[in-house]
Specification:
mainly alpha; Arc Repressor Mutant, subunit A; two-stranded antiparallel ribbon; 2 strands; elongated
């Protein structure tokens, strides 16, 4: 019985990972940027006043990872940095016309299918899922815990 359940769980993980990978490949082929870059671009378009630390928090990624993503978007000229007029020490991030064009053609949801699904689940189901996944993660190598601070498209 346990072997049957383990195989069923393995297939379920494959379905989830496969669906997520498919969505990220669709984003890259349609937009020319990664899923994490698209989500960050969307967050900047929605909240241009946010700094890097708050953007990292919104995407549930590490601040240094977020900074790297911002720099990639700047280099691709999809966003630009601009000093905020009220406080010249703060830098605002603005989506360029090229960035708006990328967002306009992006497959939905721009923040990825998995965050959307998790956000739509009720608290009880999320708690059960979290508890079960904690059991799985506890059996993994300690070095893998840092992977939780990276966007799934970058894994």
């Amino acid at each position: 019985m346990q072997t049957v359940l383990a195989k069923k769980a393995l297939k379920q993980f494959r379905i989830i990972f496969g669906a997520v990978r498919h969505h990220f490949r669709e984003i890259e082929s349609t937009c020319g940027i990664s899923g994490s870059q698209l989500w960050l671009l969307h967050e900047i378009a929605t909240h241009p006043e946010l700094g890097v630390s708050r953007l990292a928090e919104n995407l549930s990624i590490h601040q240094s990872t977020c900074s790297l993503l911002v720099e990639k978007l700047v280099k691709k000229r999809l966003i630009e940095k601009q000093r905020l007029s009220e406080d010249q020490r703060k830098v605002g991030l603005l989506v360029t016309a090229a960035g708006q064009a990328v967002l306009a053609k992006a497959p939905q949801p721009v923040d990825g299918i998995f965050p959307q699904i998790l956000a739509s689940m009720d608290a009880h189901a999320l708690q059960n899922l979290s508890t079960a996944l904690e059991l799985v993660i506890a059996r993994l190598d300690d070095q893998t815990s840092q992977l939780g601070d990276q966007h799934m498209a970058d894994l």
